[in-house]
Amino acid sequence: MSRRPVRFEAAWVLPGRAEASKLEYQLKALTKPEKERLIHGETPESLDLSPYIRIHITDNGGIFMLFVCYPKCTTCQKARAFLDAKGAAYDFRDIKTDNPSEAELRTWYTKSGLPLKRFFNTSGLQYKALELSKRLPSMTEDEQFALLATDGMLVKRPILVGGDFVLVGFKEAEWEEKL
To answer: Three-state DSSP class for 94?
Structure first.
């Protein structure tokens, strides 16, 4: 009888070797019920995963794409219809109720190759109310990441995160090329 796992539920992207060791130690310290909750997507209270990025793994070892959007946004609705028409496997995430963490935003920014300003929803009400067009040029990159992580409505959407790419905003030709 094989003792190898049949399926991995998820993996985490870590910023360095020390962080990987720290996470491994934390996972080993979990009780069996906590480990079972983690496998089902719940984070035990004793475990802080905020510095890490969760990657969802398919049954055959592939990576699900993460589709982050605001369901009421018509552009997001078009992007979702596009993904569904392509038969793409993705996890859906509502950006308003589950806004991206600072660690996720930093990873996506690096992976995307885009300027950080492209991650701001410049046509959004929050962006305008906070007068960010005037404030952003004088803010540090760290301050911008921290601000984006406070409210999902400040973040440009939709966002599609794949194994080796991040797409911000919906441009059908660009999405077609990646899928």
So the answer is: strand
